[in-house]
Automatic annotation (TrEMBL):
This is 2-oxoglutarate dehydrogenase E1 component. Its EC number is 1.2.4.2. Residues 595-788 form the Transketolase-like pyrimidine-binding domain. GO terms for molecular function: oxoglutarate dehydrogenase (succinyl-transferring) activity; thiamine pyrophosphate binding. GO terms for cellular component: cytosol; oxoglutarate dehydrogenase complex. One of its GO terms (biological process) is tricarboxylic acid cycle. InterPro entries: 2-oxogl_dehyd_N, 2oxoglutarate_DH_E1, DH_E1, KGD_C_sf, ODO-1/KGD_C, THDP-binding, Transketolase-like_Pyr-bd. It comes from Alkalilimnicola ehrlichii (strain ATCC BAA-1101 / DSM 17681 / MLHE-1). Keywords: Oxidoreductase, Thiamine pyrophosphate. Belongs to the alpha-ketoglutarate dehydrogenase family. E1 component of the 2-oxoglutarate dehydrogenase (OGDH) complex which catalyzes the decarboxylation of 2-oxoglutarate, the first step in the conversion of 2-oxoglutarate to succinyl-CoA and CO(2).
Length: 941
């Protein structure tokens, strides 16, 4: 500690007389080390000669007091401050810091001034002991980006201008000093004002005119129709225009945009360049020609276009999204990640995700938090997202913020990743322009998320058919009297001599004329742009699931790949159990052991990688595998380092990605869906730790995976691995809820598969990529079967076989003797097979239906009608309760494959509200009972 005070004694102003000032600064350091000047922080961090950080406070006080009693403790000639002056100086520095922390609470960000400003004592000079008599005294400005010394009055004016004007900045929660000082400099050195030339401001007015113009046009032409108007938040259009232009200037080549309903049509017309004629046709009920399925409402539709920027052409893709507002967030991030991968852009320099949120949804929906949590995580990083909140100050039809959140601001969730938040008055387009540039520059400088909270209002109700004044009479009285943002800005520019009233009117008429003519009104729209990174989806359109494809792999290739995967770094020591598994795989490739699931799966990935495909496997235990079977990631038992053999199959290690994801289902599955919609050449897999974990992502399954093609024409080859099987472990984790997926199946929208052997798994994986068929694949993957003595395959099964949607009885029963055919899927097959063999029955055939959708009617009919045509009884056997599993969704398929003389029965558990029992003993009794029922008991229709 003495070393510190020796340094302090040699520093200007830091003599014993100024001990009060020093102590005040130290108090500030204890409260927030990053809130003080870096030089001071360096002094205090060196306490105890750089030792412990938590130095007891009393010795510091005592040392400061000793300094105060010791004359001549400075060697510099600078006059010492009196104790009173030092106290005042400390008070000024505390006031500066208070504005940085809490100035946003007094900022003028609400266009309607709905609520009184809070009482913030920290921002009152008197709270710090400063009086009117101090206002014209000069003080050191400390770390403020201003002159070194200024009168207190000017210091306060600067602070109010920067922190309590039309922009409220929250960034002092950031712990990284470089980021914080960067923001302080950008705010304070520019007084939080954009120095915009006249032409730029005219351009802003023109964009505001466009934003207002399309809404008024639609309001008059299509009265009462829903459009989720942007009126009250028109500054979004110049904001997005600035963001795109500035992003292009900084080298961004693609923007992936996600947003909910409000303002979507406005953005499509005025930013993305959608033809007004096409939009008007949709209002008139005409179905777009490019949608072949159900289609969707116009304010859910996506779009893409190329826009000219100072840095060249920039591609903007707006994501399709359902009514579940924020669920589009991870989808956009996944799409951005796939685009980054194509460009080999590892930091997000060329791809920018932009998410536009509603205030109530941003605060209320958990996927927002989950998506933020992805932002810096390995495998999900997209280089930072610009978030824009269209803050209506109202949620749906709720008027009281106390009903929509428990926080002061709707943006508090962003603080969890220390994202800076800039609240800005939507009626001040110049302030919006400043914040937009600041936010983009921050993202580009630090590759982290940033939030713009544009505080505005909603001129109409939740939709144009709503009457909001019934529930928000005070708010809507103000709104009815409030001028539009365009009107306010036009008057401001006229008053400042930037343009005349006639020029402002000309903007309005010119925009109206273009709409009447049906012309495209977006600026800088390009056509015929060559994009070397664009994906050609045409080979995947119009394909059929049953198209023949060779998924076999020659024995030499299998052994060559296994030999490559056996090579470990020098000195790499495996865990004993893992080492035994790796040794067994060597023996399997040599033909000395039957093949297990882990071997078959690894060979499938390796072969795809060798042939030029990519593989992305994501789940909470995917590296090792929940059931200790995969071991795609190997760990050195000596030092904990990791090694991924599959990365060595190709020259680019990024071709294979395996991620143990964070404990999220909704956001991670949404991310993987977004990735798969942007990259048909990557086998994208989301794996549930257990199948029922997908419950937490049901909205992704319902609104994207199962229906995205029908609604929006979006192809997607995402694969879901859902461990499924009844092993007596209780209701949770037994069932992947097979019935839910089958209930969603229609129009060949996705595939549902229950493979029962390693070879089936191998061929299924390869088929998903080799075949030009990009539909979601839902797989009921095994648990206990991973090590089942009967659930194995041979090398020939991989080198000569293919995926079989239906598998005939493996024991070669004599067809003419068969009286009953038992149909089943998954693990129960082995229970049935074992029981029949023990009973030495030859009058029952057991047939596996490995693909439940699209249902392989031809293959099954060939067995039931032809091979087993003499059998009178067909039984569907399943482990799941009767109201679950495949029975209710698939029995009509079974009947369609049967002869008229055959009867269909059910064998399985009775209907249940729960997926499984909690007692292992009861489970085994039930299991024995359903097997006996399937093989022996009379049909239960």
């Amino acid at each position: 500690m003495n070393g510190l005070f020796q340094r302090l004694q040699q520093t200007s102003y830091l003599n014993g007389v100024n001990s009060t000032f020093i102590e005040d600064m130290y108090e500030e350091y204890l409260r927030d080390p990053n809130g003080i000047d870096p030089e001071w922080r360096g002094y205090f961090r060196a306490l105890a000669d750089g030792g412990a950080q938590d130095v007891p406070h009393s010795p510091i006080r005592e040392e400061f007091a000793r300094l105060a009693r010791t004359p001549g403790t400075t060697r510099v000639a600078t006059p010492a401050l009196t104790p009173d002056a030092a106290e005042k100086q400390g008070a000024v520095l505390r006031l500066i810091n208070a504005y940085r922390f809490r100035g946003h609470q007094l900022a003028d960000v609400d266009p309607l001034n709905l609520r009184p400003k809070p009482d913030v004592p920290d921002l009152d000079p008197a709270h710090h002991g400063l009086t009117e008599a101090d206002m014209d005294e000069e003080f050191n400005t400390g770390s403020l980006f201003a002159q070194d010394r200024m009168p207190l009055r000017r210091i306060i004016e600067l602070l109010q201008q920067v922190y309590a004007g039309p922009i409220g900045s929250e960034y002092m929660h950031i712990t990284d000093t470089d980021q914080k000082r960067w923001i302080q400099e950008r705010l304070e050195a520019n007084r939080a004002q954009a120095d915009l030339p006249a032409e730029r401001r005219k351009g802003i007015l023109e964009r505001l005119t466009a934003a207002e113009g399309i809404e008024k046009y639609l309001h008059s032409k299509y009265v009462g129709q829903k459009r989720f108007s942007l009126e009250g938040g028109e500054s979004l259009i110049p904001m997005l225009d600035d963001l795109i232009q500035d992003a292009g200037r900084q080298g961004v080549r693609e923007v992936v945009l996600g947003m909910a309903h409000r303002g979507r049509l406005n953005v499509l017309i005025n930013i993305m360049g959608k033809s007004p004629k096409d939009l008007f046709a949709e209002f008139e009920g005409k179905k777009p020609s490019e949608i072949n399925g159900s289609g969707d409402v116009k304010y859910h539709m996506g779009f893409s276009s190329d826009i000219q920027t100072p840095g060249g052409a920039l591609h903007v893709a707006m994501a399709f999204n359902p009514s579940h507002l924020e669920i589009v967030n991870p989808v956009v991030e996944g799409s951005a990640r796939a685009r980054m991968h194509r460009r080999r852009d590892h930091v997000g320099a060329e791809v920018l995700p932009v998410l536009i949120h509603g205030d109530a949804a941003f605060a209320g929906q958990g996927v927002v938090m989950e998506t933020f949590q992805l932002s810096q995580a390995r495998g999900f990083y997209t280089g930072g997202t610009v978030h824009i909140v269209i803050n209506n100050q109202i949620g749906f039809t709720t008027s009281n913020p106390l009903d929509t959140r428990s926080t002061v601001y709707c943006t508090e969730v962003a603080k969890m990743i220390q994202a800076p938040i800039f609240h800005v008055n939507g009626d001040d387009p110049d302030a919006v322009a400043f914040v937009t540039q600041l936010a983009l520059d921050y993202r580009q400088a630090f590759n982290r998320d940033v939030v713009i909270d544009m505080v505005c209002f909603r001129r109409h109700g939740h939709n144009e058919a709503d009457e909001p004044s019934a529930t928000q009479p005070v708010m809507y009285q103000k709104i009815k009297q409030h001028p539009t943002t365009r009107q306010l800005y036009a008057e401001r520019l006229e008053g400042e001599g930037v343009l005349s009233a006639d020029e402002a009117k000309d903007y309005t008429q010119a925009y109206r004329d273009k709409l009447d003519a049906g012309e495209v009104v977006a600026r800088g729209l390009l056509s015929g742009v060559r994009n070397d990174y664009a994906v050609d989806w045409s080979p995947y359109i119009g394909t059929q699931w049953h198209e023949a494809v060779d998924t076999s792999l020659p024995l030499d290739d299998l052994r060559e790949l296994q030999g490559l995967l056996e090579k470990l770094p020098e000195g790499f020591q495996l865990n004993n159990r893992v080492g035994a598994i790796m040794e067994n795989r060597r023996k399997m490739a040599a033909g000395a052991l039957p093949l297990d699931w882990g071997f078959a799966e690894t060979m499938a990935y390796a072969s795809l990688l060798r042939d030029g495909h990519k593989v992305r496997l994501v789940g909470q235990d995917s590296g090792r595998g929940t059931f200790f079977h995969r071991h795609a990631v190997l760990h050195n038992a000596k030092d904990g380092s990791s090694f991924i053999p599959l990365k060595d199959v190709t020259t680019d290690p990024n071709d294979f990605v395996v991620i143990d994801s964070l404990l999220s289902e909704e956001a991670v599955m949404g991310f993987e869906y977004g990735y798969a919609t942007a990259d048909p050449n990557t086998m994208v897999i989301w794996e549930g730790q257990f199948g029922d974990f997908a419950n937490g992502a049901q909205v992704v399954i319902d609104q994207f995976i199962s229906s995205g093609e029908s609604k929006w024409g979006r192809l997607c080859g995402l694969t879901l691995y859902l461990p499924h099987g009844y092993e007596g472990q209780g209701p949770e984790h037994s069932s992947a809820r097979l019935e839910r997926y089958l209930q969603l199946c229609a129009e060949h929208n996705m595939q549902v598969v229950v493979p029962s052997t390693p070879a089936q798994f191998f061929h299924m994986i390869r088929r998903q990529m080799i075949r030009p068929y990009r539909k979601p694949l839902v797989v009921m993957t095994p648990k206990s079967l991973l090590r089942h003595k009967l659930s194995t395959s041979s090398l020939e099964d991989l080198s000569e076989g293919q995926f079989q949607p239906v598998i005939d009885d493996p024991d070669g029963v004599t067809a003419s003797k068969v009286k009953r055919v038992v149909l089943c899927s998954g693990k129960v097959f082995y229970d049935l097979l074992d029981a029949r063999r023990k009973a030495e029955r030859d009058d029952v055939a057991i047939v596996r239906v490995e693909q439940l959708y699209p249902f392989p009617e031809d293959a099954l009919a060939g067995l039931l009608r032809d091979r087993y045509g003499k059998a009178k009884e067909v039984v569907w056997c399943q482990e799941e309760p009767k109201n679950q599993g495949a029975w209710y969704s698939s029995n009509h398929h079974f009947r369609a494959c049967m002869k008229g003389t055959q009867s269909l029965g059910y064998a399985g558990r009775t209907a249940s509200a729960s997926p499984a029992v909690g007692s292992a003993k009861v489970h085994h009794e039930q299991q024995r009972g359903l097997v006996d029922q399937a093989l022996n008991q009379p049909l239960s229709p």
